[in-house]
Design brief:
Layout: H1 5-8, H2 12-15, H3 45-62, E1 63-68, H4 70-73, E2 97-101
Antiparallel strand pairs: 1-2
The structure holds protoporphyrin IX containing FE.
């Protein structure tokens, strides 16, 4: 049996009809299972979180104007993305962004 953790994080029965949307302020967001759960919870989760925090802080020091590339992904409401062919991790093959440097 193979458990697809990425599917659980998008389970409408648990998260509601908007389960597929990216919402930083989603109620109960800490209940996601991207790092697993129980005795085999990801041992590197605190390191992974610290790394991402450092990366995003450095990133937002340089820009606060970020938008998804319309040229590469289409117009809002009709975006198109390619995902890695994996049932273990749900990851984009690429994400094209338009950034403006902070003045
Ligand atoms: C965003 C980054 C990461 C994600 C999404 C992630 C995800 C996961 C998941 C879902 C599991 C549980 C697998 C299972 O149920 O069998 C796991 C286990 C584990 N992860 Fe990560 N991981 C990440 C980063 C890291 C890092 C940076 C390290 C080490 C420096 C690490 C070390 C481990 C170890 C040692 C386990 C096995 C824990 C055990 O079986 O007791 N992970 N990870």
């Amino acid at each position: 049996m193979i458990v697809a953790l990425a599917a659980a994080n998008r389970d409408r029965k648990y998260w509601g009809e908007d389960a597929n949307e990216f919402k930083l302020n989603r109620p109960g967001v800490r209940n996601h299972i991207a790092f697993g759960r129980g005795s085999h919870t990801c041992a590197g989760a605190p390191l992974a979180r610290a790394e991402v925090r450092a990366i995003l802080n450095a990133f937002f020091d340089l820009t606060d104007d970020i938008s998804i590339s319309q040229e590469k992904h289409g117009k809002p409401g009709a975006r198109q993305y390619k995902f890695e062919p994996s049932f273990i991790i749900r990851g984009l093959e690429s994400l094209h962004l338009d950034l403006k440097a902070k003045s």
